[in-house]
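Quick one:
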Amino acid sequence: MSKRVTQEGSKDTPIRSITKALSWRVLASSTTFIITFIIFRRFTEQTYSQTLETAGWITSIELIAKLIIYYLHERAWTNISWGKNWRVSARRKIEKRQAKEKRKKLIIK
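Output:
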């Protein structure tokens, strides 16, 4: 997967965001299906096939809705530079502190 580098840091490509959204949705929707199946099987009078159908419908709707929402959320966050370059920021602070200490030593000598 490629990354587009900009002045404010690196941004995920749209295909990377889609891939991440899909992989997460498979995991999260599987969990939704299992939980829904267990609840409907245990607490309703539905047959096994009715419970499978109910869990399937709920999971399908949830998968599509949350996939779209996650993708939009991911794309919005890719444009926010906050927190992306923490190593660069930390290195600058260290370099600044070292330069200040070096100037102090030169003044003392």
